[in-house]
Design brief:
CATH superfamily of the largest domain: Tetrapyrrole methylase, N-terminal domain
Order of helices and strands: EHEHEHHEHEHEHEHEEHE
Strand content: 15-25%
CATH topology of the largest domain: Cobalt-precorrin-4 Transmethylase, domain 1
Radius of gyration: 20 Å
Amino acid sequence: MSHLYIIATPIGNLEDITLRALRLLGEVDLIFSEDTRVTRKLLDRYGIKTPMERLDAKVEAKNPEKVLDLLQAGKNIALVTDAGTPGISDPGSILIRKLKSLLLFKLKNEKPVNFSHNELINLISVPGPSSLSASLSVSGLKESHFEFLGFLPHKKGRETLFKKISESKTPVAFFESPHRLMKTLNSLNKHLGKNKKVQVFRELTKIHEETIEGSASEILEYFLNNPDKVKGEIVFIIS
């Protein structure tokens, strides 16, 4: 029986790794990483020598069977991304779907299939740091529900989506990259009224962590006046 561990890694501060994650990263036969250079910094920090191979979005889409073959050969494998949790706006979901399809075929006489406990390959979650949960924890949202959009589309449907956000009565959270931040803020300023609160979370868990709150126009003005802060991973929450 082999295991595929989906392991969350720090989103900025390397001290945020869990004890369980460290133990498993040291015990598995192989680590598949979005970028081995990034993961190497984490492993070196904690003296972990487990071999690694690259599994970014392109490799995952092209050849997820490589991981499945190793699992079927009895290897225990960890899957990590550069930061946060695999499969959540990061590589991992294609591999997990392929693994589930394989198990559904192999265990076709078992209904329903238990992906975490079976005699072939066990799929195990190892939770940890998350920029989404970190943002929510300091957002002060009074609502108990929200809509998560992941990364917004680069081109097609962006403006339609911003219009939908402006009309939504449910809080909306999404990720944004620094090189699209100003474009997104301009669109939000165009579509959102002053009754919508915008929160921007930047460089979470790092030295220059920021939680900025205001109207879309106020947030836009803030970054226009502070162009040096248009960097790092960014989370939006609009309510």
